[in-house]
Amino acid sequence: MAENIILARIRQLETMGLVNGQLEEWYAVFQTDEGNSFFAELFRLFYETASRLMEKIEDMLNDNVVDFGVLLHVCYNLKDTFLSVGAVRVESPCSELCDSCQYRSASWCVSAIHEIRCEYLHLKAYIDDILQLL
């Protein structure tokens, strides 16, 4: 349900010409009480969606029931959703595993788990930063 609301909000933002705006530009536009509420609602919906997906991934990782195709699909679709509205620009900081990563020389499976976990942790950090602005 939240995903449908997000899509509706994105379409509304498209009509306002804000889809490719930078976060600072968005925040400047939504300075009124009404606008700021709209902005806060949009990002709260993004955050709730991301949180649910993160929980599902953590459950799969904890249960050792991992479908990498599904995880990567979810991960990159979520990132694409954020990027499509210009709200969060994720540079994929862990596409090459973190310098201090203990799994750097491990098998593909362990590396993939680590990369997915890092993508979500970084994405969550971006979302948390946005929420602090509200």
Automatic annotation (TrEMBL):
GO terms for biological process: cytokinin-activated signaling pathway; phosphorelay signal transduction system. Its main location: cytoplasm. Keywords: Cytokinin signaling pathway, Two-component regulatory system. Signal peptide: none annotated. It comes from the Eukaryota. InterPro entries: AHP1-5/YPD1 (IPR045871), HPT_dom_sf (IPR036641). It is found in: Cytoplasm, Cytosol; Nucleus. GO terms for cellular component: cytosol; nucleus. The keyword Repeat does not apply. GO terms for molecular function: histidine phosphotransfer kinase activity; protein histidine kinase binding. Histidine-containing phosphotransfer domain (HPt) contains an active histidine that mediates the phosphotransfer. Functions as a two-component phosphorelay mediators between cytokinin sensor histidine kinases and response regulators (B-type ARRs). Plays an important role in propagating cytokinin signal transduction. PANTHER family: HISTIDINE-CONTAINING PHOSPHOTRANSFER PROTEIN 2, PHOSPHORELAY INTERMEDIATE PROTEIN YPD1. This is Histidine-containing phosphotransfer protein. It comes from Heracleum sosnowskyi. The lineage of its organism: Eukaryota, Viridiplantae, Streptophyta, Embryophyta, Tracheophyta.
